Amino acid sequence: MGIKPIQRVHVGEQVFEQLKKLLIQGEWKQGEKIPSENELADMFGVSRITIRQALQKLSTLGLIETKLGEGSFVKKVDVGDNMNLLIPTVYLGENSNMQVFEFREIIDAEAAGLAALRADQKGIERLREILDQMIDSAEKDDSKEFARQDLEFHMQIGKMTGNSLIIQTNHILREILMESMEDVIKRMGYIGVHYHELILDAIEKRDRKRAMDLMREHIYKNMEYFEDESQKKAE
To answer: What is the DSSP secondary-structure string of the chain?
Structure first.
């Protein structure tokens, strides 16, 4: 078992991270009982309180469940629904928007192309509903709701690809993408409507290349704006 002695700095966090890693690596199988608080305290060389706090965090994440009088067990989970629980909080730093744009340029452009090839009528109708809600939010000058629908438009395109990795990656990063989207809308306004109308038209016409080109151009416009803004601040 790969448990390492604990250094007396941020003891509880070290215990939590080691236990989380062991769970992810499959040290204990789904449904299997993990060692008791006393046993884990002895293994790590820490107090039972520290172990209990780490187990509570793992329970909150949905990785283990505690049964009264029986102990803690590895929770049986669906990886697709819980992958986001197995990764640490991502801190992107001051350059966060540019990193998000780079990610979206890679993922969203290709997703738009796949959506153009694979979209069914139901998916296209849903995309149009989202676009209508964006337009309504813009008319009401509701930037927060506009940002939410803007992100939903991109998430829906991801769903229309039918690619579970694209869908799940977007789901994992949803909060980061939402923060970036809100910042973009606050600074640039509602220009997304124009590109979304063109992208929807390209997807509806099954024009893969045009859908990809438009999505890439849409994201480049955002990148250019933020690059120009950064240069002005530096001057």
So the answer is: ----PPPSSSHHHHHHHHHHHHHHHTSS-TTPBPPPHHHHHHHHTS-HHHHHHHHHHHHHTTSEEEETTTEEEE----HHHHGGGGSPPP---TTHHHHHHHHHHHHHHHHHHHHHHH--HHHHHHHHHHHHHHHHHHHTT-HHHHHHHHHHHHHHHHHHTT-HHHHHHHHHTHHHHHHHHHHHHHHH-STHHHHHHHHHHHHHTT-HHHHHHHHHHHHHHHHHHHHHHHHHHH-
